[in-house]
Every structure is written in C-alpha cells, then in structure tokens.
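Project channel, design review

CF: Before we commit to the Streptomyces pratisoli constructs, I'd like one complete example in the thread so the newer folks can see what an input/output pair looks like. Taking Pyridoxamine 5'-phosphate oxidase family protein.
RD: sounds good, go ahead.
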Amino acid sequence: MQLDEIKAEGARLSPWVHIATVGADNKPHVVPVHPAWEGDTLWFSTSTKSVKARNIAVNPAVAMHWQVDESGDGVMIWGTATVHTDLDTKRRLWTGLFDYDLNDFMPDGPETPDAAFVAVAPDRALALKQFGMAGRDTWRRS
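CF: and here is what came back for Pyridoxamine 5'-phosphate oxidase family protein:
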C-alpha cells in the first residue's frame, strides 16, 4: 500500500482524527483534531498551551486514528510530531490548506501569540476493512 492510498482512505472515512500523545507523566492523552495533508506531512492547528503541544515537546511520538465508519473500516498512522510557532509557517498554512476558517479559533490570525501548527511525519500506517476481519493493508516509510 502507498501513502497516497492511506490518505485517500482517511479522507473517505472522516475529516476528524483522534491523536494520542504521551507527556512527561507517562499518561496518554487522546483528543480529536481536524488535520490536512500537505505533501506527505499531516498538519493540524493547536495552541502552544494545549496538552497535546506540551506532550509533543516532551515525546514527539504520536498515534492517529481516523473515526471508524459504519462498515468498520479504519485508518491509523504512527509518526513523529513537531510543533511550529514561527510566523512564516503560520502565515503559509493559515489559508488554503484547511477546509475550515482558522480565524474561528484564533481571531488574531497567524499573529495570535499562542497559535501553533503541528506537523506529523508518518512512519507507518494501517488500513483496516471491517475492523480487520476483511483485510488489512500496511505502509511503512522506506
């Protein structure tokens, strides 16, 4: 399976993804995000004050799970996350990449002091059909 097939399957399932991070306390934290692909990088917006951003600063390993649809199909990605707060990245990603208005969450635009973007570089992925009973396909970065 190719990464583009993983992207297409995730897009078919849901725009919502649950991301799991682990912080300094070694406790998992799972929250929904609404990511977008830019090439082979998965991006989502957040606040520098969020638990997920603080956890990524301590442990960049993340797992992401697209919401399973009624058929039981699902997609998971494991990768390495980085938090980006530089103004150039925020301005570049602010318009055109996401299918929602980031200003609804950060009304001062990219200049919002605690606005950040998280980049996830996937290392491996798994696509399941009917919870894996009808097959599974994997992808790994070479």
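RD: helpful, thanks. The chain has one domain: 3-140.
CF: The beta strands are 17-22, 28-33, 36-38, 41-47, 61-66, 74-84, 115-128, 136-140.
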